[in-house]
User: What shape does this take?
Amino acid sequence: MEQVEVGGLRIAYRRAGQGPPLVLVHGALGDSRVWRTLLADLADEFTVIAWDAPGCGDSDDPPETFRLGDYADCLAGVISALDLARPYVLGHSFVAGLALELYRRHRSLPGALVLAGAYAGWAGSLPPDDVAQRVRVAERTADAAARGEFDPPSVPGLFSDALPAEARSALVAMMSEIRPAATRVMAYAFAEADLRDVLPEVDVPTLLIYGDADERSPLPVASALHAAIPSSELAVLPGLGHMAYLEDPDAFTTEVRRFLHTVG
Assistant: This one.
């Protein structure tokens, strides 16, 4: 792990490979370790950077007031500190929304976007009752983590039958290390986020990747984003769920590599 300081926070990241820069940003309840396979697979063509978001992995905790714009500004600070020119930005789930917020606030930074299992923010893609339910689940998760009683497979829609046993074990171990305060901050940030207004303005090449069995960000969410982002391409991976890049890394990496070849 390497480190850089941004806005008074120590941010950890992993780096591998040489070539055009590709920044991997993980979803909630995780850290950069979720990208180990993808990082290794793509290092033959790209300089791959995988950060630990504030409050995750080896990075410092953010203040309780942190919201989506703050995460995006922090990511922009990391990109600038590492002198990455027009990087491709790949975000999953919660952090796919962060990538869109990065585009909104720092439009000259990303050269292309890859959004996997993405939302236009929970408020922008889900009914209010669903958003409230997800916040309650996040709060219960944080409380259980504080007591040392968090059971990762209890989170709805994350652990599909397509997840291999080895990846499942690694994901459980990583998620068991989440920090309660940061879990709440991330949930509140995304629950408040509504990114629908920025979608028609996205004019960089954008790939949307979804599993057709994704229960957390189902295909109607994918279709809505695809229709709203003029420059977007939609790739649907059959039989895969919300963690498609862990469920079938080869299929996921093939789509990412194909898309980035068209961009480059």
Q: What stands out?
A: The mean pLDDT is 94. The radius of gyration is 17 Å.
